[in-house]
TrEMBL record:
Belongs to the cytochrome P450 family. It comes from Fundulus heteroclitus (Killifish). GO terms for molecular function: heme binding; iron ion binding; oxidoreductase activity, acting on paired donors, with incorporation or reduction of molecular oxygen, reduced flavin or flavoprotein as one donor, and incorporation of one atom of oxygen. Keywords: Heme, Iron, Membrane, Metal-binding, Monooxygenase, Oxidoreductase, Signal. The keyword Hydrolase does not apply. Its cofactor is heme. One of its GO terms (cellular component) is cytoplasm. This is Cytochrome P450 2F2. PANTHER family: CYTOCHROME P450 2F2-RELATED (PTHR24300:SF327), CYTOCHROME P450 508A4-RELATED (PTHR24300). The lineage of its organism: Eukaryota, Metazoa, Chordata, Craniata, Vertebrata. Residues 1-24 form the signal peptide. Pfam families: p450. It comes from the Eukaryota. It is found in: Membrane.
Amino acid sequence: MLASVLLLGLFVCFLLLQLQPRRPKNFPPGPPCLPVLGTLLHLNLENPLKDFQRLRQSYGNVYSLFFGLKPAVVISGFKTIKEAIVIKAVDFAGRPQDLFPNYVTQRNGVILADYGSVWRDHRRFALMTMRNFGLGKKSMEERIHEEIQCTVDTLVKSLGATLSPQFMFHNAASNIICKVVFGTRYEYDDEMIKIIVKCFTDLTKMANGLWAMLYNSIPLIRPLPLPFNKAFKDMEMYLGLAAGLVNEHKKTRVPGEPRDFVDCYLDELDQQGEGSSFSEEKLLMHTFDLYVAGTDTTSNTLLTGFLYLMNYPHIQERCQQEIDQVLEGKDKVTFDDRHNMPYMQAVIHEVQRIANTVPLSVFHCTTKDTELMGYSIPKGTMVIQNLTSVLNEEGQWKFPHEFNPENFLNDKGEFVKPEAFMPFSAGPRMCLGEGLARMELFLIMVTLLRKFNFIWPEDAGKPDFTPVYGITSTPKPYTMKVQLRSKQ
Ligand code: HEM
Ligand SMILES: *[C@@H]1O[C@H](CO)[C@@H](O)[C@H](O)[C@H]1NC(C)=O
């Protein structure tokens, strides 16, 4: 109650103090702004999809919004997005630095790091490490296959029954990252996983909501004991746990023989001299970043994949025919086998196109005064890429609005990847887990389709393909039935 009164007071003060935000000269157009609130009243925060659609229709491929006093530009369409993040790459490669999640992550980590040397060093290090050779004797493929075996066991236990796959796929994606980063898998009810999931859920729920909006717009309220403190408490708890794991690594590691990402980072720390941008503190947040970036994205894509494969059984069957033919007599699929599986490749890419897993990408920020499509965009402007608008853009795809692997096949049945395939975004900020994600999607989908038939339960009614809105979009919860395939 006291907090609300205080807040109201501050709010009124600000209304009086602050000038109304104004669009700079030649800035992209957008809806009218109010003092303090900017264009917030034009958006329904719970589900702004309809509002976005209206705004894009009225103002086109480059339009502006104000989050409080902060300007943001929303960019849509292949041509516009490419001009920004690929052609004018560096101009658009920053991240906003004064938002709620920046404070929660204490400006460490790689996802939200601004364009500069700390980001570059950490990104390069992560990319290097995740390539096969960086992680000691066991290859990335082996690690993924170990986890797939657990998924297969789960499915075998559910033969004949109906199963909710949400949990199973989340668990698989989560464990693959944990194995890469910490060298271990965790049971789903492990304390570590519970905390990390809670931390992430609180943070993402809040980052979208009213409290984060107020946090961003009114710096004066930041020290107050308001609901956003929960996210800070969660983060502290995660950092404590991660520090414990890193200390264990320090006790058991053999320098130069890394077992996982943490060991690699500790090796790197040994070698870095003064003035290095690597530190233990940064390592802790880096592990958090890899986990949050790699878990829901991958598992939501898998969920979309199986939702469509069950409801397009002829496509599922054609995948299985190709898999049987190419893998005949082989024990396990390898990532290299993809070169002989154009149809399977086309299906996986089509799943990613339709899944549209990170619809607005991660927000960018301009690093200098720049121009886009003839508009002037000053340094420090938030830039929101509308990836959806590229993944279903007319003119870029043979069948933009339907699930159809032909989008990735030419007349000869060969696999082709149109340039507008951007679920991982593009340019210098492009997803750094792309290689790992593609390997996971391929190995998991091929292994499971080889062994099982996936069937939409008769009593499940008509499938609802409309995704649930969020930072990552995901299908509505559904159930599946599995059968062992007779060949095999
Ligand atoms: C299907 C799965 C995935 C999708 C669709 C996806 C998509 C994306 C997108 C759209 C971005 C934002 C790029 C930009 O700002 O322009 C991103 C960034 C990022 N992703 Fe992924 N991602 C996936 C899986 C992964 C995995 C498995 C990892 C980790 C190992 C990962 C790690 C990251 C990181 C660290 C960034 C930040 C890169 C930077 O700011 O430089 N992602 N991802
Ligand atoms: C992105 O583009 C799609 C159309 O392809 C539109 O429906 C959606 O509202 C746009 N989102 C934003 C944030 O402008």
